[in-house]
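Morning!

As promised:
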Amino acid sequence: MIRIDDALSRWAGAPENAWSPALASDAADRMATRLGLTVLWEPGDEEWILLADAVAYQGMISIRYPMALLTTHVASEARSIDSALDIVEITEFLDENLSADAELLKATALPHGWDDDFNPQAFCANDLFVESV
Amino acid sequence: MTRRRLPAPAVRHVQGLFRRFVDGFKRGRRGQAGNLPARDPSPRAPRPADPEFTPRPMERDRHGNLTDGVYRVSGDANRKHVKGSAPEGKSTYNEGIDPDEITLTAAQQADQKNLWTGEIPGQPSSFSNKAKVPFDQDIGHHSGTDEPTNVVNVYRKKNGTVHSSPGSRLDQD
């Protein structure tokens, strides 16, 4: 399992104005340009900006804190594109091998709770994205 | 007064008419009538703008979640897009809109018209988690554009759980 508690703890302790949707969008655009990815984001309800290639989602960047969940290939490049990003490397966007403390999730990425089929001990990046809408 | 009995063939004819009426009524209620569309979930519910849309029957599972056997609606997630319970900044459905019904209807339309990838350039081919489905009337207010909208954004997990929010109009993308 890939625990994301460390990154969420840093999120919980970060000042509120440290990041913004505009900064997240800019980081996503730079990453997409460098790596040939597509940015998928509809401002308003979506709290993560998705990055995808023609086959699969390759990761996402939060608009509320400079945290990114990125597949291995993208993660290795992302560190040189935006050093502000707190990067968690994931295996695949749909692999249910992420876990986090429930209280940390509520304090950060999922402040409005989650559906009863979301398991904080085994979820994927897509689950986190959908639950946050 | 003299009572006159109908001839037996007439009685059988009337009984047959009544039986066919009851059977048809039952089939219609179940959405099984061959040449009739499945029952609309509610009398004046918004429908997808596509006139060819054919709804699949819906029902509540034992947990109270609306389902059609393919998708299961997360009522809890939909409450974030209902006035009165929506967190600040979230898009909200208009009064009178059933968010669970419109979610499932949107998901069904997305299947029928391949909208999981069709309307959103760049969605990956292996699995896409979002569809934008236009309806035949305004259904809510989109927070990102601060405007009324007729579009439902429906989001899905790999296990078939779906929920939705009002989305930006297609001509604004």
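The first strand of chain B starts at residue 59 and ends at 60.

Hope this helps with the figure draft.
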